[in-house]
Design a protein that fits this description.
The protein has 659 residues and is mainly alpha-helical. Among the domains are: 45-179, no CATH class; 590-659, no CATH class. It has 30 helices and 20 strands. The strands form 10 sheets. A two-stranded antiparallel sheet has the order 1-3. The radius of gyration is 50 Å and the shape is flat.
Length: 659
């Protein structure tokens, strides 16, 4: 009995805990339910949108059913309404291609590439059928220019039924989205057995031909929807002027072949207008290569508009270029310069080449009358340099300017292949310096002397009134030192620096040959290490004052001078040294003892005592002293013989007795 009590107690305790847990969970769930957000419809917030959509005749099911999330992500992104899928992919997730007729060969351009269904349809609602933004042709006119469809005579079905009468909206197995093969589509309304139909077509079986050969399917300013440019026999319903009898075995066969048929009405000599150079198709009688024998949307029955007709054969002239010839892009296009049938000039030009070019380019008219004309200009050969149809180079040049020039100046191309080339030559910009057509100066240069150089180097060439100028530089004679195009010497110099400078400073050349020592820079012809070749603020065109100029090369000496006792003349190197060469070693101005004696009185008693009475004439000062700087106050060298350091010369030398 006693053993049962603990078990009952444990069961009661477990039951109590379970009840408490269930109660707590129920209470927590109840509180959570109270805290849950109450769901609201999208239109509860987007009220302006709801008010806009409400009165529309047709609404998208997703809008009608308030199922915005069928297309949109619930929260989207800040500042952006995010769709579940991109573009047409979203629409096609419900509207299959097969269901909406989007599975045919020819697809509406509004549904290709980056275009979207929303080009025509409103995704939420509209007053048009199928959610169209506008009804009938008006919807089409949002992309298609309405002018060609609203001429004097409009196709009846276009006025009454709109574009849908002949075209499908999404895709078709027929070109131009037609509902059926073109002729069959026309014959679905126009019955070929009707008396009026047969009379209008002179009993010819036109139901076997293409109606659009003569008629515009949309609108025209001519009766019976004839195309704007119609052949006279077509307008006069005189088909038999060109074709066999309507009742014959071959009613559409022509009465004569090719150009022979055309010349029964059109006099070939009149069309040639005295021209001796004929267009190939005109010469061979292939009129139909350019003209439609029945009707066309282009003037004069042309098969294509403007230049497109010419470039259908002359493909190279139809390529897109960076620099277009203005007449080709406006006005009469190709016919601005060429005749269509025959002319008296080669290449069907309507006038002599120079006359033709200067008719527009009046500034080039007198180019051959300048003092120095460019030979091609003087010869009227504009196309020697320019492509008359346009090019990918400036001024319609046939190639990069230098390549054009090299076609005549072939020697220049070889001569310019050097290590130092003038920047305009590198860039192929010959016309930076030379006038392409002609000018007043020799070699066609735009300006003479340094004035030409100043166009680019103007900042460097500004005179400094307080400075010193190199004579050729001040005289504007740049070419006395520099090549104008290219050189094998740095700086485009005419010769290596030393050689070039000594061609004027010949006195230095003669003296240097007899010198005992030469400045390294002078020996190697590096004159510009010390001198400016143009102008400087210092005498003798020095680049910097002493000793800075010298220390730019003598860096080790510069380091030794830092924090050392400097020899007083060291701040002016020329106190002791010659700049170019000297009869003495180390470019010294005088023999060593004599040079030092200019400042140090060797006859002075103190000097004699300090030097143990040794004869100054036999001394070599630099054997013991640093000539520039030293840590020692007496400028002794850093490493000295110990007896010398202790001034005990007698340990090694026989010291003369003092007198």
């Amino acid at each position: 009995m006693k053993a049962l009590l603990p078990k009952r107690f444990l069961l009661l305790l477990l039951l109590a805990v379970t009840v408490a847990t269930v109660t707590a969970v129920s209470f927590s769930a109840s509180r959570a339910a109270q805290r849950r957000f109450e769901k609201k419809e999208c239109l509860d917030c987007h009220t302006p949108f709801a008010q806009k959509i409400a009165p529309l005749k047709s609404t998208h099911p997703g809008v009608k059913d308030k199922d915005c999330e069928s297309c949109h992500i619930r929260h989207g992104l800040v500042g952006k309404l995010v769709l579940k899928k991109n573009g047409n992919e979203l629409c096609l997730s419900c509207h299959s291609k097969e269901a909406i007729g989007l599975d045919k060969k020819h697809v509406h351009s509004a549904l290709q590439g980056g275009a979207r269904c929303t080009s025509c349809h409103d995704p939420h609602g509209s007053n048009g059928t199928h959610l169209l933004k506008a009804e009938g042709a008006e919807n089409c006119f949002s992309c298609h220019d309405r002018k060609p469809f609203e001429k004097k005579v409009v196709h009846a079905v276009l006025k009454t039924q709109g574009c849908d009468a002949c075209h499908v909206s999404h895709s078709s197995d027929q070109a131009n989205l037609l509902k059926a093969e073109p002729t069959a589509l026309c014959l679905s309304c126009h019955k070929p057995k009707d008396a009026a139909f047969t009379k209008a077509h002179e009993n010819y079986p036109v139901e076997k031909a293409a109606c659009t050969t003569c008629h515009d399917p949309h609108a025209s300013d001519l009766a019976a929807l004839m195309q704007e440019s119609a052949h006279a026999p077509v307008l006069q319903a005189s088909c038999d002027a060109c074709h066999k009898d309507a009742g014959g075995a071959e009613p559409f066969a022509v009465n004569a072949s090719g150009g022979e048929l055309c010349t029964t009405c059109h006099d070939k000599a009149d069309l040639a207008k005295g021209g001796t150079h004929a267009h190939g198709p005109f010469e061979s009688g292939d009129c139909a290569s350019c003209h439609d024998p029945h009707a066309s949307h282009q003037p004069k029955l042309l098969l294509r508009a403007g230049n497109a007709l010419c470039t259908s054969c002359h493909e190279d002239q139809g390529k897109s270029v960076a620099t277009e010839h203005a007449p080709l892009t406006g006005g009469d296009g190709c016919l601005s310069c060429h005749g269509p049938h025959a002319t008296k000039q080669e290449k069907l030009l309507t006038a002599e080449l120079t006359e033709l070019c200067t008719g527009c380019h009046a500034d080039a008219k007198d180019a051959d009358k300048v003092a120095v004309p460019h030979p091609p200009v003087a010869g009227g050969d504009c196309v020697a340099c320019h492509d008359p149809h346009g090019s990918n180079f400036q001024a319609m040049l046939k190639d990069r300017p230098d390549k054009v020039c090299f076609t005549c100046h072939a020697d220049a191309e070889v001569n310019f292949a050097k290590s130092a080339v003038h920047q305009p030559i590198l860039a192929g910009a010959c016309t930076s310096c030379h006038a392409g057509h002609g000018g007043a100066n020799p070699k066609l240069v735009k300006k003479t002397g340094s004035d030409l150089c100043a166009d680019c180097h103007g900042e460097m060439m500004k005179p400094d009134p307080a400075g010193v100028t190199h004579a050729p530089f001040s005289g504007g004679d740049c070419t006395s030192c520099h090549e104008v195009h290219a050189s094998s010497v740095a700086g485009m110099l005419k010769a290596p620096q030393g050689e070039l400078c000594l061609s004027c400073h010949s006195d230095l050349k003669d003296q240097a040959a007899k010198a005992g020592s030469r400045h390294d820079a002078f020996s190697h012809g590096d004159c510009t290490k010390c001198h400016s070749p143009h102008q400087a603020k210092l005498a003798k065109l020095q680049l910097a004052p002493e000793p800075d100029l010298c220390l730019t090369c003598h860096k080790a000496l510069s380091e030794r001078m830092k924090g050392a006792n400097k020899h007083s003349p060291v701040d002016e190197c020329s106190n002791c040294h010659q700049p170019h060469f000297s009869a003495q070693a180390r470019l010294l101005q005088q023999p060593e003892g004599q040079l030092c004696g200019n400042c140090h009185d060797t006859a002075d008693a103190a000097f004699g005592k300090a030097h143990l009475g040794i004869d100054p004439a036999v001394m070599h000062c630099a054997r013991c002293h640093e000539p520039h700087a030293s840590k020692d106050p007496k400028l002794f060298k850093a490493n000295v013989h110990p007896p010398f350091a202790g001034r005990s010369c007698g340990d090694c030398h026989v010291v003369p007795e003092s007198k």
